[in-house]
Amino acid sequence: MSVAQSWQQCRTAQFSVQWHASGTVITADGELDAANSDQLASYVQRNVSRTKRVILDLRGLEFIGTAGFSALHRINVACSFAQVHWAMAPSAAVWRLLRVCDPDGTLPVTDELDEPLLKAAGWAKGYQRPLLQLVPQAR
């Protein structure tokens, strides 16, 4: 059950937050690049003071540039400083960036199978896990 929700829209991206009794879900949709990655980091920093647990839902990001990765590191530092446990749920674009920029897996990652907060927020937004596509074996 969501206690409250707010959102912010900036160039090519939209950010929203849902406060739940067990934590906070911050969602980013659209494209994250040098023009708006600072806004995401600031948006998260403004909202971490209200909770001890944050899930950063990035499943709606279609693109993320290297400036977005820098924002994720700033979010990691801000959450650590505020003693907030956090994790992100990446989209395919975010996974590609993490494989290149964070090969050691230093940034925390989760998904809706492991995270009840994310599961509730995802179902509310209508997200569905992609179906597997069977490919016939070449002869």
| Beta-strand segment tally | 5
What Rg, in angstroms, do the CA atoms define? 15 Å
**Uncertain segments of ≥5 residues (pLDDT<50)?**
1-7, 126-133
Structural class: alpha/beta
Mean pLDDT: 82
Q: Examine the secondary-structure arrangement and name the CATH architecture.
A: 2-Layer Sandwich
In CATH, the homologous superfamily goes by the name STAS domain
End-to-end C-alpha gap: 52 Å
Provide the helix percentage.
25-40%
Secondary-structure element series: EEEHEHEHH
What is the CATH class designation? Answer: Alpha Beta
| Strand arrangement, major sheet | 1-2-3-4-5
The coarse silhouette is globular
Organism: Mycobacterium numidiamassiliense
Domain STAS: 13-72
InterPro entries: STAS_dom (IPR002645), STAS_dom_sf (IPR036513)
Pfam families: STAS
Q: What structural keywords apply?
A:
disordered N terminus, Transcription Regulator spoIIAA, globular, 139 residues
Structure characterization notes:
This protein is an alpha/beta fold and 139 residues long. It has a single domain, classed as STAS domain (Transcription Regulator spoIIAA), CATH 3.30.750. The protein is 34% helix and 32% strand. The chain is built from four helices and five strands. The protein has a five-stranded mixed beta sheet, sandwiched between helices. α2 links the parallel β4 and β5. The longest helix is centred in the middle third of the chain and has 16 residues. The N terminus is likely disordered.
